[in-house]
Fold:
Amino acid sequence: MNKLIRSFKGWLNRAVIPLTAQFHETMHKELQTLVAAVTLLQDDWTLYDKAVTAFLDVFKRARRYMQTPIIVQLDNARDAMMKRIISIIEQAIFAPLNDQEKAAAEQLKFLADIYRGAQDRDYESNTALVTHFLSAAASTKFAAAVATLALTSLMDALRTSNNDFQTIYVERLNEMEKNRVAGATGELRKGANDAIYVLAEAISALDNLHVDADTKDKIKKIAFKFNAITDQYAIIYHRHAGITASGNRPGGGDPDGGDGGVDGGEGPPGTGIG
Structure:
């Protein structure tokens, strides 16, 4: 049978709780209106809605555990460094010292526009975006422009700041797991995951039924949005898994290898509130 929804079960089962919560919050918000238009999905959506609501309610109360002064301080320092780099790029566009500086700034504006607002995202997403920004800036495509604007030392400082934050953040996650601060959050997370697996199967199953063209079109739109969200969060998951497995060094791989998919095997669940 054709699977309209791409695989995602493997990494979601292993993701830390904060990333799982962000994933479900985004998925619930983005799919709610689309799914409401397909009558055949209402029972499955009701189960998912109930499970996600229960999970997010407990998670949002528990996440305060991660708001420690040192984490907030390191996050603010990282955000300030990112804003400073983007500000320098923008200033060089409007008030360049020479043509070379203007050309370099215009080239780097591409990166600045992509990663602008990273500081407004959750901790996991912010870390992934900053890591990707630094990787792109160090590539052969942008390295010369970075040097022209004398941003190399600031990029190094941002990398250090980002790594310092992630080191403390992962330590906090591990400490919370040892103290079992998450409590019932883990079980509620499993309930939300199980519910979305059922919903994913239902969407794929409907695509293989003889339904009218309008319903078929609505299902395709749901699947497109569903896959876009799972792809986005899979990237964030693999980045986090790589940082954790490689001693908090950005760019590591997923220690578990692949992605189990909607039908894939389960791995040990991650934990954490952030």
